[in-house]
Amino acid sequence: MPTSALLPPLPPGRFDAVIFDWAGTLVDVGSLAPTQIFVEAFAAFGITVTLDQSRGPMGLSKRDHIRTLLQTPAIATQWLARSGQAATAADIDAIYHRFMPMQIDKVGDYSAPIPGAVATLAWLREQGLKIGSCSGYPRQVLDVLLPLAAAQGIAPDHAVAGDDLPAGGRPGPFMALANVLALGIGDVRKCIKVDDTAPGIEEGRNAGMWCVGLALSGNEAGLTLDELAALSPDALSAVRDKAAARLYAAGAHMVVDSIADLPRAVMCLAALDTPMPAGHGQRAA
């Protein structure tokens, strides 16, 4: 029985919407789809990028992600040695255009819902909440993912892609606020942003929303379900604590392991009879 089945109803009017990230939050445990593709895209230009380096800027729009990687000293040094000059805007475009077809081709392989996601979305809708979403994925990639996820029970009311808005993406508030407008929400303080990355949490805070971070299902842990299951209790706690610390540092009001735990977190936030705090550092009980 899902944990949400044991919870009382959410107090009426406390929240109006929950806005989710995609990879590592709703689908794709470990946020694997974009990570490996960045490694392969850079390799096509003779540049070695590790998986850990690839994960560093995760949550940004993919073009900004590439730009940030090229500014990393170890990668910038490689590029300078290869080309004789620092990476230019044209170089960013070239890597991006190499990345895009690879990501479009692979995103469907990582469209399976994270365990508990379908039940959690159903519970939120039972409470009368609207479901928004946004992603660092470009629109071409997100448009491939959306119908595949919908066929498996993940169908938000709205979805914003990382290149949809002239104002830009994370960590700015723009994609989250675009959901607010599309869903007709009158008060951002009645919205919860859920994300597995620091830029995604910063996005929610910059939009004036409550924020819940996901420690184990996404980019911060970067592990598959099998890899998580193989960890000893102490090792799992270490992974959880490291991920949670980064999400709290970004401004999360609460951190849980995955979307399966979100209903308890929502109930905990609903019980807080205070103005929105700067950040609680709480775990849902």
Please give a structural write-up.
Helix 1 (32-43) packs across helix 5 (89-106), helix 3 crosses helix 5 (89-106) and helix 9 packs parallel to helix 11 (233-250). With 285 residues, this protein is of the alpha/beta class. The chain has 2 domains: 3-32 and 111-270, Rossmann fold (3-Layer(aba) Sandwich), CATH 3.40.50; 33-108, DNA polymerase, domain 1, CATH 1.10.150.240. The longest helix is centred in the middle third of the chain and has 18 residues, at 89-106. Residues 280-285 have low confidence and may be disordered. The radius of gyration is 18 Å and the shape is globular. The chain has a 5-stranded parallel sheet, sandwiched between helices. It has 12 helices and 5 strands. This is Phosphonoacetaldehyde hydrolase.
